[in-house]
Amino acid sequence: MTLPPPGQLLRRVFAALTHRSKPSATAAMEQTRYRLMVTAAVVTTVFSAIGVKLVIATLFSHGGEPRQHHALELDTTTTNRADIIDRNGNLLATSLVTQSLYADPKLISRPDEAARKLVSALPELDYKEVYGKLSGDKRFVWLKRNLTPRQQYAVHRLGIPGMSFEREERRFYPAGNLTSHIVGFTGVDNNGLAGLEQGFSKRLNEDPATPLQLSIDLRLQHVLRKELIATIQEFRAIGAAGIVFDVRTGEVMAMTSLPDFDPQDPTGLNPETLFNRATLGVYEMGSTFKIFNSALALDSGKIRVTDTFDAVHPIKIGRFTINDYHSLRRALTVAEVFQHSSNLGSVRMAQVVGIAAQRAFMAKMGFTRPTALELPESGWPLVPNPWREVNSMTISFGHGISVSPMHTVAAAASVINGGVFHPPTILLRQPGAPIPGEQVVSRQTSDMMRRMFRFVVTEGTGKSAGVKGYVVGGKTGTADKQKGRHYQKNSRMSSFLGAFPMHDPRYIVYVLIDEPQATAKTYGYATGGWVAAPAVGRIIKQIGPLLDVPTVDESAPEILSATYLNAAGSTNWAQQPPNTPTAAAPNPPKGSTVASVPAPAKTR
């Protein structure tokens, strides 16, 4: 076979190579372009997604920063203990979710460094105490309970391994000292330790969604506490108690015991500060007890308000002698015995009624058992056993029997409200709910006692409690305090039990001042008429408008018809102009409110 010339052969080879490489180059270019398109699509999708996220974050999420209410939502978890509120819905006690710090010492490699850091974040902790806990052998130790959010954040920033937080609750008391003896307080584990927190601990835990509503009015509470503090300061007293009471329902509208305490931190306080003088303290009430001696006498049917009793000759029994603080040296009507707070007249009235009737009446008034008030701090009365003649005599003017201020107020309410005893309560009575009550004196006796209350303020020892337009009535009381087996003449309890309006009684205001000291302003006296009665008047003047009690013309015929009484025991106001002293009833001397106690008779 003959080969073609070399030039022709080269052309044929080049043509063959060219013909075969064209399809391969085209395919490679097509494949490369496809890959670029896929890559571009993926990149576009990714950056588009990123762009959408950025738009959402910047325009719809406020820059992506967490909003404040997100953090708050974590702390609004339902608590395990119900709130306590006053009659108007004001918060007195509530629970807030908190975090408590604990540690597992086995997980802490350098307890000294951890303790140093922790104390730097929480300066209130003690380094030695923290170091001792973190270097111990226990697997669980509390470091601090109930941290604030700021404290929790500070500990978080330390980043110490082995430390954690436990969700707990802490009780807070927005009213502070104002209701401390009523509401009480809880311990570190949220268990009630005093007051309603203790008395209703089971109810508060079992029904946390329903607040416990009290009969207390925080506005009245403020007025009462303010005036008691002012009186303590003026007379340099060691303490006081006060109560505002609804005579129609038995509700306690306000109650204060001083000194009080901060329920947020009650630990380490003087026991005297934690002591509730209004309900737990029992005292010889002095002349305020003549309210019940007079009611007993009138209700017995054996004595009328116009009857007279010897107030001249002292009464001797055994080695004791009973006198009047300021004797008028003449016979006194029952109205005058109450007006001038005569011990001699009171004793002789009790002698007419008899020991058995007196003991039964005092039991009916609740003076032989604790009150029904829902506070666990309720004192037991101290009554004589056996109840002898000398006991009957001293009880007639408020000595020889010890009861709490709450006993006195609840019983006095029944004497002026028509004769019905309503058990005292600190819980709000629901509208339309039946009000428990027992008739303890007749309506006729109650009507006469209202007149005698009014007579003490218009013509007797309680004039400084009067408030124009509110028809105030009441009874003074001053009793020497017993220390050991003897009475201290310069250590006394001065009180005033006021009520208003006497033509249609609605409220009692009671003030007790413990060991007041006389001042130049009171001419050297520190008795109930000089110390407690003015405080009651100031309180009534402020709370009357808050309670929607209308003022009236005290000289109006309808008011006088319901409240008038004179020294002779007459209720006919038209026969003599009101507020005009009779010859038989001179104005009492200053300081005639003391219920003196039996003194040893002089030996011959």
From TrEMBL:
Residues 574-585 have a biased composition (Low complexity). Its main location: membrane. The keyword Membrane applies. Residues 78-189 form the Penicillin-binding protein dimerisation domain. GO terms for biological process: cell wall organization. Residues 243-539 form the Penicillin-binding protein transpeptidase domain. This is Penicillin-binding protein 2.
